């Protein structure tokens, strides 16, 4: 029987499974963590630190001299990182992140499943609960773009997003295409999600997973695919076979049967004119890690 706590189990899964990382961030923000340091409040043991108390938190240095703040999932993990006894503080992870904005932190630095958190990641975690904060851009006027299937298929990204979507029963299908905009230097991948109700939180999680798994230098956009809506929705539904379908019941399988098979084309073919489309709907884009 493992003596790991819930956070440590989640960290271990997230290390090897990108689709598990949104759940790891959720558990982390709800968990107590431990840091090396002390306060000037009197007493020892478990006690509430009063408002106005001063905290002293230990910094370590990486090999290149960069300062980092170590923090730990448990007292066991903390003690495994030390050669001698040291004073420590326990606090909610969210409270720690709010205290050390602008700093770099390392979770369980002596563990095989350690995780470094950069300042921008911490800002995103506090804002949206994920390491990548999505933003929304709106195409101001009808724009002609070229669409097709990527010749270099993002296998890892697609596999990870499929695993994530399987945990969200309100998502029915997911699509993929490559889009070249007139003013863009490079084409971007577009992931379309079709579902019931508000799926914005699923898009945000998928954006976080995509940021960790997309081929380096490739932007990724996300759109909501809506039956009967023109533009990207119509293109996906009419021309692209979903890379993910919800498999509960035969009705969904039947609904998507008979779609045209994907046809792989490279960027040069795309520029020559695979499919032309006027885009008029918002695109939800992860802000970092995908370009």
Structure characterization notes:
The longest helix has 14 residues, at 200-213. This protein has helices spanning 6-16, 21-29, 75-80, 93-99, 119-128, 155-165, 200-213, 232-239, 250-256, 267-273; strands spanning 32-39, 55-57, 60-61, 67-72, 88-92, 105-107, 115-117, 134-137, 143-150, 171-180, 188-195, 220-224, 244-245, 264-265, 276-279, 283-286. It has 10 helices and 16 strands. It has 2 domains: 6-129, 3-Layer(aba) Sandwich (Trna Endonuclease, Chain: A, domain 1); 135-286, no CATH class. The protein is of the alpha+beta class and 291 residues long.
Question: Which terms summarize this structure?
Answer:
seven-stranded mixed beta sheet; 291 residues; alpha+beta
Write a short abstract of this structure.
By secondary structure, this protein is of the alpha+beta class.
């Amino acid at each position: 029987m493992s003596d790991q706590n819930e956070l440590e189990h989640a960290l271990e899964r997230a290390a090897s499974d990108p689709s598990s990382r949104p759940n790891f961030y959720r558990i982390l923000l709800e968990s107590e963590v431990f840091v090396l340091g002390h306060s000037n409040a009197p007493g020892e043991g478990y006690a509430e630190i009063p408002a106005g108390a001063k905290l002293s938190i230990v910094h370590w240095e990486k090999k290149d001299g960069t300062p980092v703040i170590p923090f730990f999932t448990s007292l066991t993990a903390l003690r495994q990182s030390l050669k001698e006894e040291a004073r420590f503080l326990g606090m909610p992870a969210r409270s720690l992140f709010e205290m050390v904005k602008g700093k770099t932190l390392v979770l369980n630095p002596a563990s095989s499943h350690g995780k470094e958190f950069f300042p921008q990641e911490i800002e995103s975690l506090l804002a949206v609960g994920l390491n990548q904060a999505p933003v929304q851009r709106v195409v101001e006027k009808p724009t002609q773009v070229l669409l097709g299937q990527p010749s270099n298929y993002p296998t890892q990204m697609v596999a990870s997003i499929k695993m994530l979507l399987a945990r969200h029963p309100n998502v029915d299908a997911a699509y993929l295409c490559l889009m070249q905009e007139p003013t863009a230097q490079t084409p971007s991948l577009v992931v379309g999600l079709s579902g019931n109700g508000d799926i914005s939180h699923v898009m945000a999680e998928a954006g976080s997973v995509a940021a960790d798994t997309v081929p380096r230098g490739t932007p990724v956009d996300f759109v909501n695919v809506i039956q009967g809506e023109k533009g990207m929705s119509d293109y996906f539904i009419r021309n692209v076979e979903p890379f993910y379908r919800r498999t509960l019941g035969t009705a969904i399988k039947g609904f998507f049967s008979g779609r045209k098979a994907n046809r792989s084309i490279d960027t040069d073919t795309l520029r020559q004119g695979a499919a032309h489309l006027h885009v008029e709907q918002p695109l939800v884009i992860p802000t970092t890690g995908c370009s």
